[in-house]
Amino acid sequence: MAVRKLKEKTPVTPAGANISFKEKVGYGFGDLASNLVFAAVGMFLLFYYTDVAGASAAAVGTIILFSRLLDGFTDIGMGAIVDKTQSKHGKARPWLLWMAIPYAVAAVLLFSVPDLGPVAMLVYIAITYNLIHIIYTAINIPYGVLNSLITQDQYQRSQLNIYRMLMALIGTVLIMYCTFPLVQAFGGGKQGWQLAFGVFAVLSAVLFIITFLTTKERVKPAGEGESHTNTVPLKVGLRALMKNKYWAIMLGFAVVTYASMGLGQGLNVYYAQYILGNPALVGPMGLAGLFPMMVGILFVAPIIKKFGKRNAIIGGLLIGAIGTIIIAIDPSSWTLVLIGSVIRGIGGVPLIASIFAMLADTIEYGEWKSGVRTEGLVYSAGSFGTKVGMGLGAAMMGWALSFGGYVGGVAEQSASANATLIALFVYIPLVFSVIQIIFLYFYKLDKEYPQILKELQERKA
Fold this sequence. Notes:
The protein is an all-alpha fold. The protein contains 16 helices and no strands.
């Protein structure tokens, strides 16, 4: 196929140009539902495995990485399934209804490790860890795709993503502050963790069903009617994906971004206990980064609209680096950690507000470039990057702790273990930020998107 070139820019009215407040909030509830479980996986699961269930940090880290790699391939399959789904509720929405209860059940099993021998315990961990991620794939891939089916308008997509990420942050804060009190309220120990996540799981299922009830799919493929998307063979879709340079950039960016997040989420509980010397600081420590995001995400839309998603994220990464440098002055100072975490949180606002909207924009670029529209495959392949990144970050933490001589359940760690925690918390994030900026340097879709959308609308006509 000949290389397509952009024509001169002219205005166009995209599908879903005006989305109601109710639908935006309803869509956001889906990520609140996800994070009532998945934020806990990032923040507490490794701690639960090592300090409550008594599993080896290195072994668990290896299980997590290989499970995430496997999970990435299930993402591709789920994306293809979503593209072929035909129901009266659409192609993405029905999966929220079908998977809500299985997701809740798998969440309870995840935090129900029985008293078994070391090998049997690791087998149970591997099975339940993979189970929750398979079900998460089956509900989260369609949820992510839903953004691109609700609207084609760049600004509305950014707004949907803002509501999504605001709800995700609320879910993260709830998990951060309510998990330990709830565990203790239920008696502590393994029973306390199991019952606490029974509560979170039920609430998660209810919220997913609300998202299903309050959203609507509007976007149709250009040129060949609605059935076109549902009949694209997997090989054709994959070939089209390989021509989508902006998707490839976002895939690499997502791996690095979520490796950083996967590392940071699970680290706070260790850092508060052993570097700051006060495990009670894990909540305030997390809130110091999340609260600026929760406030900032309410005001970031005009900034994104003016400067573009890419430029806003680069600016945020530079701000976040300043926060990291402040922490590096004295990593054991709670005051500096607090100030640096707040600045990191401010810098993270454009990133969390834009990353999924940027991935959704690559769908139109891919359709314009190849003539093939596969929302599910594009999003699932991007989700592959996020899960591999999270797995890589969690595995890095597990391996590094083991290499540094970390021993679970003791009052104090060795000097090498503490040095490892400081390196993971302070210096590795700076490396990740540099790599993220390099990826974004090559992303130019913000400027090209309006004309691409116009040409797609002309094909429909």
